[in-house]
Design brief:
By secondary structure, this protein is of the alpha+beta class. The protein has two domains: about 120 residues, Alpha-Beta Plaits (2-Layer Sandwich), CATH 3.30.70; about 260 residues, Bira Bifunctional Protein, Domain 2 (BirA Bifunctional Protein, domain 2), CATH 3.30.930. Helices cover about 30% and strands about 25% of the residues. A hairpin with a 2-residue loop joins β9 and β10. The radius of gyration is 24 Å and the shape is globular. The N terminus is likely disordered. It catalyses: tRNA(Phe) + L-phenylalanine + ATP = L-phenylalanyl-tRNA(Phe) + AMP + diphosphate + H(+).
């Protein structure tokens, strides 16, 4: 018993030494600061970014030569370069792939007409630096500033951050590509002087509806819809081949109306690859653009890369293993590269069960994304998947118990039971310290 207690003390000391806790449940140190990409910010009660995420924010996979994420980016950029040309045969679209991922709440939400009560603003969904700044949840956060700067045709590429579950297809950092195209009356209708962009001055349309915005004329709307869908079907064929099957699905976004998702038939199922729509006119008028109509779309580069290169585990994109990276060193962007796994290492599976605090305030504030972030911060990419496998409420005390199954697997070697046990104990201690839970 004494030896067990000594081991726990050592594990706690190691935990303090190697990992600094940061959670939505812990009381923040208001005098503390956090440094991200050489910029320092004050922590406050909204800070929930972890050390693991801070480290990942220093990488730029989408601009790393021969990286699979960069290969997909280049293929999409090249498609737009050749599809949209000005009168001098130069590309119309400009590319912005080095914008800081640190954005204000106004950039990430307000500029895109996202309501204050929208679930995407929750601390359980986003990585907040403090009450004023966060790591962008989408590259769309930069749309308004680039339009305000006078740009009509542009692509934004970058890393985005969302708190999410842990499995082979989800990671807290991934990469997006966004596009915006704005057109004036003369550009849209050419010589048809009798046609107009707008029916009226009223831009107060309810977002998310299935029909055109009231302010747009039917002719303007249909021409923009046709160009948008033709462009994106062409992109799907560029990426997946001319024979790819596709379909359009109606959806809703706060910043476009109407809105659609494009799905392709891949691996015997329909896979959503992007979202798009006609830009809300009020978004444009808010940045001083009153004589243009626009379309926009956004897609995730990891999802495309996993399909094109047959990559089964999203963690591989962050691997420094030369056996993985060297497979993509091909100067031909259209080369049909298929990732070949070097080896299959066995899984190590451990469960962790704990009682949530009896204090109702603390227990109600706990969410699974808090625990997932803790696991990432302690174990890094040693963890392949975390599953909530059981929930139990004691019939007499009312205490709630949760059981998570943690699947460990290294991508490059076989893990030993000893090192997995040590990491698992670190997770137990961290959960106890950070959330006030009682390990069962």
């Amino acid at each position: 018993m004494l030896q067990y207690a000594t081991n726990i003390v050592k594990i706690r000391q190691k935990l303090v030494k190697h990992f600094r806790c940061s959670s939505t449940s812990a009381k923040p140190n208001l005098t503390d600061t956090i440094t991200i990409n050489n910029k320092t910010f004050k922590r406050d009660d909204y800070t929930n970014i972890t050390d693991k995420i801070v480290c990942l924010a220093q990488k730029s996979l989408h601009t790393t030569p021969h990286h699979p994420i960069s290969l997909v980016r280049q293929r999409i950029v090249n498609y737009f370069y050749k599809t949209f040309l000005n009168s001098r045969r130069n590309p119309l679209f400009s590319v912005y792939d080095n914008l800081s991922p640190i954005v204000s709440l106004a950039q990430n939400f307000d500029s895109l007409l996202i309501p204050e009560n929208h679930p995407s603003r929750l601390k359980s969904d986003c990585y907040y630096i403090n009450r004023e700044y966060l790591l962008r949840a989408h590259t769309t956060a930069h749309q308004a500033e680039l339009i305000r700067a006078g740009l009509d045709n542009f692509l934004i590429v970058g890393d985005v951050y969302r708190r999410d579950e842990i499995d082979s297809k989800h990671y807290p950092v991934f990469h997006q590509l966004d596009a915006v195209r704005l057109k004036t009356k003369d550009q849209l209708f050419s010589c048809e002087n009798d046609l107009k962009l707008f029916d009226c001055d009223d831009t107060a349309c309810i977002p998310g509806g299935p029909t055109k915005q009231r302010c747009h004329t039917f002719e303007a709307f249909k021409l923009m819809e046709h160009e948008l869908k033709t462009t994106l079907v062409g992109l799907a064929k560029e990426l997946f081949g001319n024979q790819v099957r596709y379909r359009w699905v109606d959806t809703s976004f706060p910043f476009t109306q109407p809105s659609w998702e494009l799905e392709v038939y891949y691996n015997n199922e329909w896979l959503e690859i992007l979202g798009c729509g006609i830009m809300m006119q009020s978004l444009l008028t808010n940045v001083g653009v009153n004589n243009r109509i626009g379309w926009a779309f956004g897609l995730g580069l990891e999802r495309i890369a996993m399909c094109l290169f047959k990559i089964q585990d999203i963690r591989l994109f962050w691997s420094n293993d030369s056996g993985f990276l060297n497979q993509f060193k091909d100067d031909d962007l259209k080369s049909p590269i298929i990732y070949k796994p070097i080896s299959q290492h066995p899984q190590c599976i451990h469960d962790i069960s704990f009682w949530l605090p009896e204090d109702k305030t603390d227990s109600l504030s706990f969410c699974s994304n808090d625990f997932y972030d803790l696991v990432r911060n302690v174990a890094g990419d040693l963890v392949e998947q975390v599953l909530l496998v059981d929930q139990f409420t004691h019939p007499k005390s009312g205490k709630k118990s949760l059981c998570y199954r943690i699947i460990y697997r290294h991508m490059e070697r076989t893990l030993t039971n000893a090192e997995v046990n040590e990491v698992h104990q670190l997770i137990e201690c961290a959960a106890s310290d950070q959330f006030g839970v009682t390990i069962r």
